[in-house]
Design goal:
With 554 residues, this protein is mainly alpha-helical. It has helices spanning 10-16, 22-34, 40-53, 58-73, 78-90, 104-109, 111-120, 123-133, 143-148, 157-163, 175-180, 188-197, 206-213, 219-231, 236-248, 250-261, 268-280, 284-291, 293-296, 298-311, 314-324, 331-344, 346-353, 358-369, 373-388, 395-398, 403-419, 427-434, 445-455, 473-484, 488-498, 523-535, and strands at residues 459-462, 467-470, 503-508, 514-520. Among the domains are: 1-126, no CATH class; 292-401; 427-546, no CATH class. Helix content is 62%, strand content 4%. It is rod-shaped, with a radius of gyration of 44 Å.
Length: 554
Amino acid sequence: MGLFNSEMTPQKAVEALGSDKEVKVEKGIEFLQEGGAEMLPFMVEKFQTIVPQAARSKKHAAVAEHLYTLLCEADLPAELCTPFVETLIQAPENIDFSFSELPAAVVINSYPLLETTLQDADVETKKKVVPFFDKIHLPPSILPVLASFLNRESGFAEEALLLIPQVDGDLSPVSDALYDMLDLYPLGDAAAESILQMRGRLLPNLEKLNQYLMDFSSQVQKRAIRVSVPLAEDNSAVYALLQKAILADESARVHILEVLEKKETLRPDQMDLVWMILVNSDSALTEERGMKFFGRIEKNVRPLIIHYAQNGTTQEIARAFKCIGFMKEEGPRVCRELLGVYTSNDALLFDRAGYAAFPVIAEMMKTNCADDALTGVLAKKMRDYCTQNELETPTEVMALLAPEELSDVIEWSFKRIFETYGIGYTPQYAEEMLSGISELVAFDIPVLNSFIKAIGFSYTYESGENQPTILHKETAAAINRLRSANTPATSNILHLISRKKDLEILQNDPSGTTISSFTLSFEEHRRLALDELERRGFPAYAPINYLKQERPRY
């Protein structure tokens, strides 16, 4: 006889839930539902009995799943919630209980059991409790319990991190333990995410952050920076710690840039951090990474650039102009504005910016406003300053000069070498001097080397007379090489050699007292140069001859 050929009972209805026939299952569900509240204690009791057996029987597993659904749909009395939830915690893994069906009221009524389990059970049982808490807000009283799990030994740290945000109100009781986790592998990254997630309800632990930020080139420093950059948006004390780290360590500067690079937009105070990194970095790579920010948000950082280009130190001014190179849209406009300021303010150009900043200022002007009439004026100001202070004019400045001013610079440099008779100058110096202006001058390295050797000299003393005699071989050979290159530039050089003054040689004793003096005559050098100039028809000396006829365009 079939199950339903006899009178239906609660026991038979439960057994029907495990049937292969859908109609029987439906009849069993219908009977249990019609029993109402009076049927619930029986169903919970059966649930407690059948769930442990489900691991060995698919039929029992099916019955357990149907009972679970029925109990979740019912208005379960408070006294039945705890045994129901306790059975769920102990359920074998092969039963598919959908926690989305579980009413929050059941969890609330079972909270004492869940909290006790969380404190006292083994780790695996603790983990089974976690899904229940997704249904409710947790009371602050549980925070010390959760804080005790925030360590590597508990085996429950990751789960605790998931539960903490569900606690109502202030989360400060877990602050110390949470910040301690930043220094734990592999839990530190998860702790960093949790701190940022809860930052509105969790005061920053300044002592720990300061300690970690000063732990140079470590993973904990990297995590502390990852946490501190967002926290600093609302906390001036954290911002100050970031500034301290920037001043202290290159690894901090790099990690801060890495965090800021991931942000779509930057606040003004964050761009100030980027600027601080640029000014204090001792790494060209870090500088370049930092400067790229100025190409991302050009209009927003324009005031910062303008400010430091006019009010910064020499180093800050140089950095400001370098940053302009990354500002494709705003660069020309910023440069033209600064061009007017620097042209009219000698104190800014010479005292605040100074000689060290000349190359980068000139380079940015050449790139962004080479066609502006004031560019040449500014370049001439820098050239005159260099000449008056006997400084080499940077090649970047030379590139902005008009031909007349540029030829004067070249002439000044050559005459300066000439007045020393080449002493202290080497072919390597000649190459360095020509570097950067090779497109501007009308001679190459070999000619310049010959020029320097032609200026120089060496001498020896003839035996018996103790008179110095010039050794002409190397110098004369250099002059002859210049004679063989018939160009306006070498004609200029021959003019200089033809005016080469004799040199007085002093001999001093060990105390520094002059005991004798001799005059070295360079008459033969002058004669070689004059002979060649005569052969060329005595072309006029003109500084412009040092330059190529056609100046390259920039």
